[in-house]
Amino acid sequence: MKSRYRLLLICALLALSFRMLACSGQDFGVLQPEDLCKCLPIEPDIADYRHAAKHMPIPNNMPPVEITVTDILAWPQDPLPLPIDQPRKGRELQVFHVANAFLQETSVNSADCDVHMEISETADKNTPRVIIETPVDSEFCSARQQIQAQLKQHNFRLDSQHGGELPAALPLQVLGMAFEDFDHSRGSAQVATIWELHPATVNILP
Predict the structure, then answer these.
(1) Contact of 37 with 144, CB cutoff 8 Å
(2) What is the pTM of this model?
(3) What would the pLDDT profile of 31-65 be if each residue is shown by its tens digit?
(4) How many other C-beta atoms lie within 10 A of the C-beta of residue 178?
(5) How many helices (H) and strands (E) in the chain?
(6) What is the span of the domain harbouring residue 6?
(7) Is the pLDDT of residue 178 over 90?
(8) What letter would DSSP give residue 55?
(9) How many domains does the chain have?
């Protein structure tokens, strides 16, 4: 029993270590297609923290709750990481809509192919940020292509080899589900909470 527990602990630590590398923006030397819908994850599901909880469709029969980035920043955080296979619970079962926010940074994680974005309440580059992610799952293909096309209109290229901090923040709205990640290297120094909207879709405003 002890040896089995030790093996499970080692597997969990390895999975978290892999996830920390993936979230820090490593591309592992993999050249992914420019078409975001053809990106192929190299990260095994077991290495993805709470994989099953994150990779689900946004319910279309659930009225979204209107919130702001400031509201998300105020959500209480669990002091310790949730179990790696923890299903959704509480706030994570709700759909949220952010009508007005600003996109500050975006990139494609070539380990899991999710589109990673950092949003803030105001356009100020130094204001606290929240991470939102549009997953690789097929039901989000059009949403991923939309954000890529909208950014192209602003002369910003987004694919597995291009992305990062935007020269100037862009106004957008977000629809997504709350997700509590764990405290690790997940983005810029301005990211101020482990809460995310994940899965999420975005629309850059005129």
Answers:
(1) yes
(2) 0.84
(3) 677 889 998 888 778 778 999 999 999 999 999 99
(4) 21
(5) 4, 6
(6) 2-204
(7) yes
(8) S
(9) 1
